[in-house]
# Entry
Amino acid sequence: MDNLRDIYPEPTPLARVKQLDHLDVHARSFIARSPFLVMATAGADGTCDASPRGDAPGFVVVRDELTLLLPDRPGNNRVDSLTNLLSNPRVGLLFFVPGVLETLRVNGRARFISEADTLSSLSANDRLPKSALEVTVEEVYFHCGKALKRSQIWDPTRHAAEGELPSFGRILADQTKKIEAHEADARIAHAYDTTLY
# Structure
């Protein structure tokens, strides 16, 4: 298909003008209440990654109307997103607030920060992040809640029941054939208890 407008109408004027080039009071308030985001990156070769990031509300710091600070908490050490950012600094962030249907999209450019004074301001549970990202904001806009409303993601009656899905350890055991499920589950539980920060 050469022209998407053959099947999709033009966006409404309001949908076009809602995009800002800075973090206004509403975006700042939303980020301050957000405990979770998804970060999208792409490498120089086009390899894409979407990675979850989460902590207590306000873990992403709004330095000013054009700058965000995002600490890198311990994870699986694959560093897929961070590797992408080394060759392509473009980043997309999608912020969520539990119970709120709308999300906040922030697009911009990221650079690594490792200065001790900045990292100390992003500490949690008396632990510094290994690094942080400084995101220079280019586009900001709220996204309507249709997807979250359709999914009913915040409705607890729609949450998966315990045992409905196999454990993460079972999945790793089945997919890798390198570990027993009970051992993987024990390692995961230990990591969740001891290495969140």
Observations:
- The two ends are 47 Å apart (CA to CA).
- Strands lie at 36-42, 48-54, 61-64, 67-72, 90-96, 103-113, 131-143.
